[in-house]
């Protein structure tokens, strides 16, 4: 076979064979997920739905999930923008180590995250000093935010870094030659261009925080009316045999996660800009 023939595009039935076969795999996986969710939805009854809508303890859990996850998102973005920019734009000693540490909470088993927090505040000198000076996290609502931040901030930082990576640095250099300071160039050029990626990371961090379960159960428990969130409500309802109520709450979490993923795709990240 000549080099020219090897570089020629595939024609005829072979040109459509590959996408058809691969599409079957995609369709099978999508159908698997859709069938699971649809089957669960058909299992729900009106009484369980009414309980989720009207029960005060579920409304409280939903409110607790909402305000803690929004607080966590704000903290995550506050760290994500400067941390993502530094990792994207600068090379410094220990950068590879820092970059790996940023991703470490992503691969943490959830129970490990909660256990490390519990041991830190209960067993280490620094943790006990923090607790003794009035800043209590163990079995407190503030601990929910701390758990959520530990396991979700990495997503926001990574998304922000990717957004800054996609911005042509020459745009910043042009702004500097036109009289902007580094701070002004960042605020008026870099950050607006990275806005889509930063917002996508914020939504992803929020969805991750909203559905947190394992670390919370270890670090703050699930005390009804105090530290119970929607994810722990699912566990509690299922453990006492209220499977239908737990399922309705679970479907609510799935809907929220799906909406977050759609929002991320609508934002679309940051396009590359070339001069």
Walk me through what this model shows.
The structure is a single chain. The protein is mainly alpha-helical and 275 residues long. The chain has one domain (45-267): MetI-like fold (Orthogonal Bundle). It has 13 helices and no strands. It has helices at residues 3-6, 13-43, 46-54, 56-89, 95-107, 110-123, 125-132, 141-165, 169-177, 182-210, 214-219, 230-239, 243-267. Helix 12 packs antiparallel against helix 13 (243-267). It starts with a helix and ends in an 8-residue tail after the last helix.
Write a brief structural summary.
By secondary structure, the protein is mainly alpha-helical.
Give me the Rg, rounded: 24 Å
What's the overall geometry?
globular
Count of separate DSSP helical elements: 13
CATH class: Mainly Alpha
What is the number of beta strands?
0
Q: Which structural class should the secondary elements be placed in?
A: mainly alpha
Unreliably modeled segments? 269-275
Q: What's the average pLDDT?
A: 84
CATH topology: MetI-like fold
Give a quick account of the main beta sheet: strands, pairing sense, barrel closure: none
Helix share of residues? over 70%
């Amino acid at each position: 076979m000549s080099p020219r023939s090897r570089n020629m595009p595939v024609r005829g039935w072979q040109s459509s064979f590959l996408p058809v076969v691969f599409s079957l795999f995609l369709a099978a996986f999508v159908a698997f997920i859709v069938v699971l969710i649809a089957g669960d939805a058909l299992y729900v009854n009106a009484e369980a739905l009414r309980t989720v809508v009207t029960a005060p303890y579920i409304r409280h859990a939903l409110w607790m999930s909402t305000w803690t996850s929004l607080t966590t998102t704000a903290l995550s973005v506050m760290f994500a923008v400067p941390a993502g920019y530094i990792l994207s734009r600068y090379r410094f000693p220990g950068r590879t180590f820092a970059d790996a540490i940023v991703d470490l909470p992503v691969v943490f088993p959830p129970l490990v995250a909660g256990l490390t927090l519990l041991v830190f505040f209960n067993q280490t000198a620094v943790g006990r000093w923090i607790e003794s000076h009035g800043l209590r996290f163990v079995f407190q609502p503030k601990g929910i935010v701390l758990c959520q931040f530990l396991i979700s901030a990495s997503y926001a930082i990574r998304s922000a870094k990717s957004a800054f990576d996609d911005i042509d640095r020459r745009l910043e250099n042009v702004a500097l030659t036109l009289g902007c300071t580094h701070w002004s160039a960042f605020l008026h050029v870099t950050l607006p261009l990275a806005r889509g990626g930063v917002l996508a990371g914020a939504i992803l961090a929020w969805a991750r925080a909203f559905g947190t379960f394992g670390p919370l159960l270890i670090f703050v428990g699930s005390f009804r009316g105090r530290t119970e969130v929607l994810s722990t409500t699912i566990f509690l309802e299922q453990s006492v045999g209220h499977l239908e109520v737990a399922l309705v709450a679970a479907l609510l979490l799935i809907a929220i996660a799906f909406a977050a993923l759609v929002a991320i795709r609508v934002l679309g990240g940051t396009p590359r800009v070339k001069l």
